[in-house]
Each structure stands twice: as C-alpha cells, then as structure tokens.
Amino acid sequence: MRLTVLGGGGFRVPLIYRQLLTQEPGPDVRDVVLHDLDEGRLAAVHAVLEQMAADRPDAPKVRTTTDLDEALDGADFVFSAIRVAGLAGRTVDERVALDLGVLGQETTGPGGLAYALRTIPVCLDLADRVARRAPNAWVINFTNPAGMVTEAMRRRLGDRVIGICDSPIGLGERAARALGLDVARVTMDYVGLNHLGWLRGLRVDGVDRLPDLLADDAALGRVEEARLLGPDWVRSLGAIPNEYLYYYYFNREAVASIREAPATRGEFLRQQQEGFYAAVARRPGAALEIWTRTRAERDSTYMAESRDSAGAGERRQEDVAGGGYQRVALDLMAGISGGRASTMILNVRNGSAVPGLPADAVVEVPCVVDAAGARPIATEPLEGSMLGLVQQVKAVEQLGIEAAASGSAAAAVKALALHPLVDSVHTARQLLAGYRERLPGLADLLR
Length: 447
Ligand code: G6P
Ligand code: MN
What we know:
The chain is of the alpha/beta class. The protein has helices at about 15-20, 40-50, 70, 85-100, 110-135, 145-155, 165-180, 210-215, 215-220, 225-230, 230-235, 245-250, 250-260, 265-280, 285-300, 305-310, 315-320, 325-340, 385-405, 410-420, 425-440, 440-445, and strands at about 1-5, 30-35, 60-65, 75-80, 140, 160-165, 185-195, 195-205, 205-210, 240, 340-350, 360-370, 375. It has a domain at about 1-165: NAD(P)-binding Rossmann-like Domain (Rossmann fold, 3-Layer(aba) Sandwich).
C-alpha cells in the first residue's frame, strides 16, 4: 500500500515512520510519500527517516514532493497533518486571546476557533483534490482542531475521512494500567467531542471498574488527568475528564498560569522547532540524533504550565514514551485494510450514537473499525452538565465551520461570542479584530 502524508515535513512524521517499522501486526505499507510546501523541512525529515531505516533493508521506501497531485496519485491512505500558518500562527492564536484576558490555547477556546477559521478553507481544498486524484483513498485527519476539521472535510469526502486524537485512548489506557488491568480486555465508555470528553466507565467482563479507580487515591495518582484536575473533583464528576477539560473547569488558573509563563507553548515550540530544522540543515548526518533529543524535550514539557499550576508534578515516563497519534493512526489503518474488526475511539459522524447532538455532528466516541471504515457505537445519554457543554461547544464549532466555509465575519463573531470561555460579545469582536489584523490572509477570508 501507499501512504501519503500531507504536512510531511512536520516534526512528528518520524514517529509515524518508526511505528511503521516496528508495529506488529502493522499495515502493509511499501511506499511513503511525504508532501509539504517547504522543501527544507521535507529534506530534514527525510534525513531523519533514512537514518531510522539505516539497518532495515525491508523498510518502506520514502519519497518527498512539493507537488500535491503527484503526492496523491496512487495513495491508498492519506494522513492529513498540516499546520496552516505554522507555529507563528499558533502564537498569534494564543497571544491575541491572552491579551484580552481569555484562554489562549492551540485547540481550546477562541485560539482553537481562530486556528479552525484559517485551516478549514485549506482542508476543504485538500479534500477536493483527494476526491479527484485518489477517490478511493481513506483520509485520516490529524489536523487540529481535529473535530471541526474532520466535520468540514466530511462535506467533500463523507465517511472516507476519519479524525484521530491520542488523548482519549491515552486516558483510557492510563486508567486501565492504574488498576493493573489488561488494556486489551477493557471496554472504554468514553464520550464527547475532540478534546472535550469524559471516561465514564471501564468495563472488564461486563463489570465497571471505574468506581474502584475513583475510590483509590494511589491509583488515581497514576493517571495524569486525575492529578491535573485533582482526585476530589474527578470523584465529584464520577468520570475522568479529558485533560483539555482543565481549561474549562480551572479556566482562571489556566489563563493566569499561561500568562505568567515566560513563553506560551506556541512560542516555546516555535523557537525549539526553528532550532531543530536549522541544526539538521547544518549537520544532516546527525539528523536522527538531533530529532531524538528535541522530541524528548517537546514531550516532557507537554502541558507543563497547567501541570505546574495544578501541582500535578512531572509526566510519568510511560506517558512520555506512550503511543501517541502514530499508534492510533496505524491501528486504524490496519483495521481498515486488514478487515479484522476492532474498537477504537475516533472522530466520526454522530448519527444517533450520542443522544442530544445533531446527526451530522462529528463526535469522539468508541467505534467499530473494519474494512467498511469506522462506525460509532451507541452511548448512554450524557448527564446534564456534560450534555449542556458539548451541545454548546458543538453549536460553536458548527458556526465556526460555517464562517470558514462561507467567509462570513458575522458568523465568526457569533461563534467566538457563544464560546463558553469567551465572556462578552465585545471581547468576541475584539478577538476577531485582533486575529484579522495579525493572521495573514484572515482579513481577506472573512468579509
Ligand atoms: C496532544 C493533543 C494534540 C495536540 C498536542 C499538542 O497530543 O492530542 O491534539 O496538538 O497534544 O502538543 P504540543 O507538543 O504541540 O504542545
Ligand atoms: Mn488531539
């Protein structure tokens, strides 16, 4: 099979390739095509992959290109992992919001909406090109904000695009491990939207073991999300939230700690990543070594400012080393191409799986994966506070998609104003003004 990666010069692409080299049983990929707009980044990542495969004559062949049609021709799977406006855009998403006293974060709150507004038009074009050049390919969407972007791309690709995230699967596995359970035998009751969901149950042979976990402080201490949100709050909810819910339940503390930090996550990464690509250009022979060092630093500092302000401590070694997007993506690919049915938490069309949300909304829920794709499994109704929040955020996401697809500034202001983390219509107008001024192209896009 041929795998094409859009955003192929991205820093995490070597994780995908290494997973291809090691996963058992993995999908049978013979060719990898990396597409990117930036030749320098493609060359750097290519050098890392070559060094990874140095002692592996059976490794998938890698080709790089800046020509999109050439990249798509003959693709069986397309991973879409782009970052429109790069990390410079991410820092603007953060700073415009923080300067107005509201959350400035990559995917959650107004920053996530700004990111979606510039990304969705590009992803709709990509989806058109995939539909033309690789009409039978499956598209696995990594591009954030993944729920919104997947929902938008469905307009062109229908069920052939599936969104992924590592956080729900990571949470479920951490919870299972904390109780010493065999992850393979656990059924996870996880429901929500991307970066906005809850683990409500952990069943083994029909018995829900989550209550045991909630009652056990020592075991909860082994679950990153419970350390971040605090065992008492997790017990009050009766469920373990996705880590991104920290930004909702502890919004003031999150905003304060991000504002106090010397740099936002985007600013830190921008500097780190520019250093990485420059260092590899200078010493291509050391590409793998430089990448390995940079990656360890990136992963160990993930969500650091939230963990500091919550007193959650350092990340556990197995979380830093853990599967991530690459494992989710390759499991999904293996499930579709191998045809053996499995269950995975993915971003797909709701249908009737989550009562109270529109059928066309993309939700993040356990799905059956087989040769026909991914189908959501029906869930128990969400309890009031959770349902209310996902309904509100989904309405905001759909307004944001509409704004991006139609170029309506009024819809963009409405989406920002109705976001639960934006507390004034006036602030929403200032947010859009700030983003239009500082994000290249956004002023022309939204009229
Ligand atoms: C997790 C989330 C991703 C997000 C990433 C940010 O993996 O699931 O959606 O993009 O964290 O990590 P970073 O190192 O870029 O801050
Ligand atoms: Mn994610």
